[in-house]
Write a structure and sequence with these properties.
Blueprint: E1 15-16, E2 23-31, E3 39-57, E4 61-67, E5 69-74, E6 77-82, E7 86-89, E8 95-99, E9 103-111, E10 118-120
Antiparallel strand pairs: 1-2, 2-3, 3-8, 3-9, 3-10, 4-7, 4-9, 5-6, 5-8
Amino acid sequence: MVDYFVSNIREIKMDRVPVNGSKNAFIQWLVTKENGSNYAVRKFTLLKDGIIPMHIHKYQETVVVTKGKCKVCVSDKVYELKEGDYIFINSNVKHAIINESDQLEFFCIIDYPDDMSIITLNEDCNKK
């Protein structure tokens, strides 16, 4: 555990998003429990036609869009988010994110419940 640390996003490894069925979607873990934090801050990048399909998990999350625009399907609703918009999604609420720009970037802050598993749902995001 550290008292603090300083880094740069460009120094953080970019991995593919681990939700089954994701396409052109990448994640970087910036602040984690390994740093002594009770929450995680992650940066997502979705390239053109990028998608994180409908899924659920036990952690809560707040998504803050910093570049581009997207559709967020949450529960049975569809929202259009753009740079500066954010959404809170509680635990066990189904959701998906679809990039609608050349490149979508957003930060996602989550808590750490005992179960961090992700369940991909066999449901399409309503693209109205």
